[in-house]
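User: Okay, second chain of the day. Same drill as before: sequence in, structure tokens out.
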Amino acid sequence: MSFKLSLRNVRRSLRDYAVYFITLTFGVCLFYVFNALESQSVMTFLSGGNNSQMVEAIFILVDVFSVFVSVVLAGLILYANQFLMKRRKRELGTYFLLGMDTGKVARVLVTETFFIGLAALISGVALGILGSWALDKLSVAMFLATPPDLFTFTISWTAAVKTALYFGVIFLLVMLFTGLSVSRSRLIDLIRASRTNEEVSQRPLALSVALFLLGCTSLGTAYAILLIRGLLRIDLLWFIMLGLGTLGTFLIFR
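Assistant: Same drill. Structure tokens below.
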């Protein structure tokens, strides 16, 4: 019954799920394209010449940034899932009024999340393969002095497995978050969710200005280090530069 109810809810809530599905699909697509760089024709061509050390440094950067990008996408997906759950609180309250227990409602939502995540993963990888092919063809076209038979269509199974692994962990976290959110919800809060406005906490102006200036300083320092030493040398200072850039960006938007 939970399986059929989940399928019916997904079909009925296509408008609400569309934004969530598109977010997941493009996230998977971009992650695959980013990790498929090492299998592109231009990278294979460059690794066979005098630029092999530079290409190896680029591959190391791709692995490091993959973790960073996955954390950002996990936050985005969790936020989109939270937004979707807020829109459906009254529906969940109706389930409780009809006599469904908390565990059954949680199973319904977890099953819905699984369907959406699996569909987004398959479509995102397929779209990512096309995007990687287009990027590879564009890169080959930019190398005017390269032989005409350089371009070959390839599918990076390493990138596909890495994408499935990373997003599988993210989807598990989303499903766990969904189950915990349902188990902690009260019936009165679910029924009255549409009448409740979101509370916005006010921050003192002086604190906001201080955080903004600190963010600008951190971001400026990171870019200064980048311009002086470059990007392709991986050492302790490189991670400090990455941390300052991340902290600066966060504080500016904060």
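The mean pLDDT is 76.

User: Thanks, on to the next one.
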